[in-house]
Structure formats: structure tokens, C-alpha cells
Amino acid sequence: MENIGLLIEFKDGQVKNANFGMAAAARKESRQLVALVVDASASDAKAALEAHGVARIVNINTGNHGWNPAIQTAAVVAAMEKFGITSLIGLTSPAGRDLLPRIAARLDAPLIMDCTEIDLDGHRVKTSQYSGKTIATIVLTGSHFIYGIRANVVAPLNDPAVAEVIDFSFERDRGAGYQMIETRSDGSGAQYLAESDIIISGGRGLKSGKNFKLLFDCARHMNASVGASRVAVDNGWVPYAMQVGQTGVKVNPKVYMAVGISGSIQHFAGMKTAKMIIAINTDDNAAIMANCDYYAVGDLFEILPALKKALAALKG
Ligand SMILES: Cc1cc2nc3c(=O)[nH]c(=O)nc-3n(C[C@H](O)[C@H](O)[C@H](O)COP(=O)(O)OP(=O)(O)OC[C@H]3O[C@@H](n4cnc5c(N)ncnc54)[C@H](O)[C@@H]3O)c2cc1C
Description:
With about 325 residues, this protein is an alpha/beta fold. The chain folds into 2 domains: about 1-170, HUPs (Rossmann fold, 3-Layer(aba) Sandwich), CATH 3.40.50.620; about 195-315, 3-Layer(aba) Sandwich (Rossmann fold). It is about 30% helix and about 30% strand.
């Protein structure tokens, strides 16, 4: 039976939902899903991982050096060797972008980030290129294969299994490398955009950072995250972490609302895979209007307060 490694990420002590789609992408009778949990509580994650078909959980303990990608990389590579894992899937998230390339470099393995489809038997993946204008099919060759999957491209599958938890200690001197001095949150408490099911984004039409409150007010009622176009970020209205697009975050939500955003190619490159796109714009000739499922032609300063009111009433 082939062992497929899943690099598990946590948020607030819980396994991130996007990991379950990763498990669904890998699930097959002839495979055993092995979750690699680094410096986190595998026992807390056990029930959730079992519900999604994970048969083995490797509880990697590096001696808790805090954020130390060099040590975490060495620990994951050692666990892959120990448990006979040649294919590893992680998320194309900030943590995944940090760790997966290091793991691939260590193993001299091919790496494809931002995969939208993965065929583990043929080592064949699909990923978007040229700002989403083309979809590339890439075949990987080698002895090990590292895949970074785009969050939410595969729906989670309820497929219960019984998992054994194996402790794997990888304690090592910090040596040369990194030392975490301090971490600071931006204070927004916002969910990472790439993993959000519903996103409401604002662009130049919002006219100021202060007006983004209109989006946050609606988002609260929809359990949505708030994103932005590059213009809003370049103007200093919102932080870069909120930028959606070619040079920002690539998102794949169930619903994407573009408010006061024209729909440039570069913005589309980051959100075109959304299952439903809704636009609010005063200009019915804006590019976004021809590329969305629903639109409202009108002034966002009238529509958003009305939307907030309607959402509050629905919730009530
Ligand atoms: C190399 C490169 C990379 C880039 N990367 C990105 C990227 O990652 N993400 C990104 O977003 N852009 C990116 N851009 C910039 C991109 O080309 C566009 O300039 C940008 O997306 C436009 O942002 P916008 O839609 O907010 O502004 P605009 O194009 O100015 O559109 C504003 C829209 O708001 C509407 N509007 C105005 N007032 C109202 C109102 N009261 N009510 C309703 N609608 C209103 C207007 O009709 C208009 O359609 C990149 C550009 C380059 C060259």
C-alpha cells in the first residue's frame, strides 16, 4: 500500500478545513493517508483526521523551537524517510510556501505549488499560469514528489477511518539558522483569505480605507472574509494580506463579491475559480459585469447599507 503524506496545518488548535480537501484529493483504496503533524497536538486532531480517511498520524516533535522552518524541514524529511513516504501534499498557504520548497530542495524532488488537480498515480498536476490565462498540465519525474494544493479546490469527503498515532521525536540543537524573536498579529483576527468560503472584496470604488467598514459590516453577517483589489492596497487603505490577484492571494471561495472593482485581468487571476461571482458596480460596461454570475448596477454606498440591513434581518 502506498503511503501519501499530508502536511497538516492548524489554526487556533484545530485542523484547518482546507486539509480535509487535501485528504479527499489523495484518497484511494490502494493508498494509506499519513498525516504529518509538526509540533502540535495530534491527539486533538485525531477525530477530525479520522473522519476524513487518515489511517496514520505521525506526531512529530522537534523539541518546540517555535517557528523554525529549517528544523521543521529536517524533521518532516526524516519522518518521510522513516514512514516510507515519497509523495507529500501540503497547502499553498503562507506556511506551505515556506516549508514545501525547503522539503523539495532537501529531497531534490520536483515541487508544484498552487495545484488545482493532482493525479498521484501519474504524478500529473494542473496549475494555472500566465495570470490564469492558461492551465498547465505538468508531469513530475523523480523519486519523491511534493505538491502544494490550492485551498478549497477539492471538496472534503466524509470517509471515516481508524487512525493510529505514532510519536516521532526529532530533537536537535537549533544550531545555525533561525530564532524566532517575536510574532505580532495584525489584530484583525481575519481568516486567511485563501481558505475562506465567502469573500467580499472592495476596490477603488470604495474611495477610502474608512469605507471598508461597509464591507466588514456585511462580512460579519455572512461569515465572510474581506479582500481588496491592488488599487485599495497601493493606496494604503488596507494591508497587502487582503490583496486578491496575480500579485496577491489566489482564492477559491464558494462566493466572491467584487464591490467597486472593475475586473482587471490581474484581479481575475486571483479569483476566477470562485464558484459564484457577484459584482456591484455603477458601470454596466465594467469587465467584471461580463464575467460574473450576478451583478447589481448601482452605487455601492446605497447597496451595501441595504445589503447589511437585509442580512441582519435574515439572521434575525
Ligand atoms: C504586474 C501587475 C500585477 C497586478 N496585480 C494585481 C493584483 O494582484 N490584484 C489586483 O486587484 N490588481 C492587480 N494589478 C492592477 C490591475 O491592473 C488593476 O489596476 C486593478 O485591479 C484595478 O483595481 P480596481 O478594480 O479597484 O480599480 P478600477 O479599475 O479603477 O475600478 C474601480 C471600479 O469601481 C467602480 N465604481 C466606482 N465608484 C463606484 C460606486 N460608488 N459604486 C459602485 N462601483 C463604483 C468603477 O465603475 C470601476 O469599475 C496588477 C497590475 C499589474 C501591472
